[in-house]
Amino acid sequence: MSDIVYEADVRIERTRGPHRLAWLPARDGPVEFGVHGAIAEHYGVRLKTETATTLDYVIAATGG
Predict the structure, then answer these.
(1) b/e for 14-43, b at 16 or more Cβ within 10 A?
(2) In which element (H, E) is residue 14 found?
(3) pLDDT tens, position by position, for the chain (64 residues)?
(4) How far is CA 34 from CA 10, 14, 23, 54, 55, in A?
């Protein structure tokens, strides 16, 4: 097995319901995750503000 090349230093804090803060490498502050639109409706979440989901970030990261 080869040596470890990279190990991500990430911290996740759940603030309320589906909302979370993530501290990621190369960022000065946290990134906010939550729900919006059809996803919030599907899970019955009442929104004060819409926030990008973790799925949105995964899709964006894969270039989709």
Answers:
(1) eeeebbbeeeeeeeeeebebbbeeeebeee
(2) strand 11-16
(3) 899 999 999 999 999 888 999 999 999 999 999 999 999 999 899 888 899 999 999 999 998 6
(4) 17, 10, 15, 7, 10
- At position 47, the amino acid (one-letter code) is L
Complete DSSP assignment for 36-50: -HHHHHHHTPPPSS-
Tokens of 16: 């309320």
pTM here is 0.76
